[in-house]
Amino acid sequence: MKVRRVVTTHNNESKAVFASDGPPSRIVEFKHVPGMSAALLWETSASTVVGGEVNDPAPKATSWVPPAGGTNFMIVVFPPDSVMASASFDPVAAGGEYVEKLPGLAEKFEMDAPGMHRTDTVDYGLVLDGEVHLELDNGQIKKLEKHDVVVQNGTRHAWRNPGAKPATVLFVLVGSRRVS
After folding, report:
1. Secondary-structure class of domain 24-175 per CATH
2. What is an example of a Pfam family matching this protein (predicted)?
């Protein structure tokens, strides 16, 4: 995945300056799910402040799912579902790779319902390229195309790509509290 991330901050005179310009520090490419990649672009906590020194939070992030009041900004490339349906696909190896590379998120996926998961977040998703289908746990499916937006309110869901090309989606996850 090729992504350019430009980050701003303030200098000692409180003037806006560029802090960095280049690839994000946390991009993961998956060996056991060919064509899948993800980039954690930035993260904030409930106590994040602006105006001070800016340090890249992505390398130290312990979870791809933010806590209540925090945010995670990411891009995910979903390969076609046919990748997971091929005879050479090893779901055990893929699952281990998810746990290693997507801590905090991988644990939300259900073993008995592949792809299904739920997080305590409000997710803003924007399809940047391709098509992806959002499947809810009641069986309803919506096809999303380039520039379609979804607001995912902590519901149980799965992302599917029945097409022949990868789909690229930008997500902002906003950590929330779940009501009973």
Report:
1. mainly beta
2. Cupin_2
| Rounded Cα distance, 60 and 167, in Å | 27
Rg over CA atoms, the chain: 17
pLDDT of residue 179: 93
Kindly state the DSSP code that residue 59 receives in the 8-state scheme: G
Chain segment 98-152, per-residue pLDDT in tens = 999 999 999 999 989 989 999 999 999 999 999 999 999 999 999 999 999 999 9
- Report the alpha-carbon distance of residue 65 to residue 125 in Å, rounded: 14
Cα 23 to Cα 112: distance, rounded to the nearest angstrom = 36
Residues in a beta bridge with 150? 125
Task: In whole angstroms, give the CA distance from residue 74 to residue 64.
Answer: 9
E strands, the chain, in order = 5-10, 16-22, 27-29, 37-44, 71-78, 121-129, 131-136, 141-145, 149-153, 157-160, 167-175
pTM for this one?
0.94
End-to-end alpha carbon distance in the chain: 39
